[in-house]
Every structure is written in C-alpha cells, then in structure tokens.
Design a protein that fits this description.
297 residues; alpha/beta; seven-stranded mixed sheet; two-stranded antiparallel ribbon; 9 strands
C-alpha cells in the first residue's frame, strides 16, 4: 500500500531537520599516527578530532624556565615508564611558557607512546566518556586543559575534582591530567576570603573561603609555578633567542646598548617580561635587520 504523499513530505522534513542537529560521522582515530587530538562534544555524543602535527616546538627552545622543564619532564618520564606519577597544575603569569612546555614535552616523547587529548573547560563533564574510550589503548595519555579557571557553578568542577580524587570518575592507569591556569587555585580569589582566618598555636588556619578554594588545586600532586622574569632574566632570554634566530638564518646581529634599550622598551610597552615577550622582540629585531639588509643589497 503506497504511503500518503503528505506523510512522505512530513517524514522528509523530519529527516532534514534531524540532519541539522546530528554531527557529521566521525572516523575512528588512529593513535598510532596521531599524537594529539581535541575532544569535540556534540549534543548526543563526543568524538576525537585529530590536531595538526605542524607544531614542532622543542624543549631546548624554551628558555628561562629550566626548573619548570625539569619538573614536568621528570614526571612525564615516570608516567611513561609505568612508575608512580602525579597529575599536574602549571600556574602563573600569561606568556611564561606553560602551554608551550606541554607541546614541547609531547614532541619529545610522542615516539615513546605519549599522546595528548585537549579538553575544553566546558567539556570536562565528559571526562568519564573520554576515559572509557582510551583506557584500553596501548598509549599513555595526557588530558590537557589549557588556561583553565572556574566560576561558581561551572559544570566541570565536580567531575574534575572527582577524577583527580580517584573516586567515582577515576582516570585509568594510562592517563594523567595536566592543566594550565593563570590562577593558582583555579577559581577567583577575593579579599574577603581570609576574613575567617585565625591563629591557633601560632599557626595560620585559613578561613572557610580559602579552604574551599584549596579543595580542587590541592588534588594536583604537582604544582609548577611560572613567574614573570626579572629584567636580567628577560634580557638573557632575548639574547639567546636572537642568537638562535641568527644561526637559523645565517646572519650576524650584534648585541649592543641600542638593542638592549630597545628590548627593555619593548617589554615596557607589553607590560610584561616573559618568554613570549622576549621571543616576540627577538623575531621583530632579527626580521627588521634582515629586511633592511635585503633593501640595501
């Protein structure tokens, strides 16, 4: 018995509307050839989207953060060797190399089975789904959340807290969580937080506001702090960056008082002495030097 034309048309409209809601079919990711992926959450499900492999930043290119590099690299080596290792919070000023360090570690250890899954803050509530998809994979995964901070009521807060706690949403053995943030406690700090603090036997006992803020960040086994450079550190990093760029392009650029003064002025304009500012200045002055030479030749 043929279907009614009106019914057929209605079914066609329903299918057209459904196609607008449903995600594109996602192919199964090949972790053997893909070293990093982004978790994409749709209305009904989530999937891994391979990330571009054109980021070739290396550990020796990150200057002025030797102590931080050592802590992150050693913890990752322990993890890859199957030894006890910690979830990690990298916190501090913007532009100091937190995210770049994670990318450089991945590039250094991808051939030993290290993989990174980047998860947006709004998708942290999907951690249990992510864990279930990777727990039987023969690789070591870093769940990486960049520039994380929470506001009261954010959905992912409790799920991340539970995952770090190793309780209901515990991460599998082949997984660690690495987070970067500008906030040490991952949530805003207010002057009123310490109003409940008191001295007990000459020891400071934090008020309830501070204790509540500590509950999440304290669950990271390692805190790695990144701070702005002193002027001396900043100038040292600038000089090293200029030397590296000059070697790469086979040019000669002398370090003199004029270059140093320009580097200091650059940091004042940026209101920041950090690795990012140092690299940006180095690229500018080396590129400018090369451009002037090309016009004169």
């Amino acid at each position: 018995m043929p279907l009614d034309k009106d019914l057929v048309e209605q079914l066609r409209r329903v299918l057209d509307a459904a196609e607008l809601v449903l995600p594109e079919p996602a192919s199964r990711i090949d972790w053997g050839s893909c070293k990093a992926a982004n978790w994409c959450q749709h209305t009904f499900n989530g999937y891994f989207e391979p990330l571009s492999a054109d980021d070739d930043i290396r550990l020796d290119e990150l200057l002025g953060i030797d102590k931080q590099k050592q802590l992150v690299e050693e913890n990752t080596q322990q993890f890859l060797a199957g030894f006890p290792a910690n979830n990690m919070l990298l916190w501090g000023s913007r532009g100091t190399g937190k995210s770049s360090l994670i990318r450089a570690v991945l590039n250094s250890y991808a051939d030993r089975g290290l993989r990174v899954i980047q998860v947006d803050k709004d998708d942290l509530c999907c951690l249990p789904d992510i864990f279930s998809k990777i727990k039987r994979q023969p690789y070591h995964f870093l769940i990486f959340c960049d520039d994380l901070s929470f506001e009261p009521g954010d959905r992912g807060y409790k799920v991340l807290k539970s995952a770090l706690d190793g309780s209901v949403y515990a991460a599998p053995k082949n997984t660690l969580i690495y987070v970067t943030s500008n906030r040490r406690y991952l949530i805003p700090e207010y002057a009123t937080d310490n109003l409940g603090g008191k001295l007990v036997n000459n020891e400071v006992h934090h008020g309830e506001g501070v204790e509540q803020k500590l509950t999440l960040s304290a669950r990271f086994g390692l805190w790695v702090a990144f701070h702005a450079f002193s002027q001396e550190q900043y100038l040292e990093v600038v000089r090293k960056n200029i030397d590296i760029l000059c070697r790469n392009y086979s040019i000669d650029l002398q370090w003199d008082e004029k270059t140093q003064s320009s580097a200091i002025s650059w940091s004042h304009e940026k209101s920041k002495r950090c690795g990012r500012t140092a690299l940006q200045f180095s690229r500018w002055i080396v590129g400018r030097h090369m451009l002037l030479n090309s016009k004169n030749n």
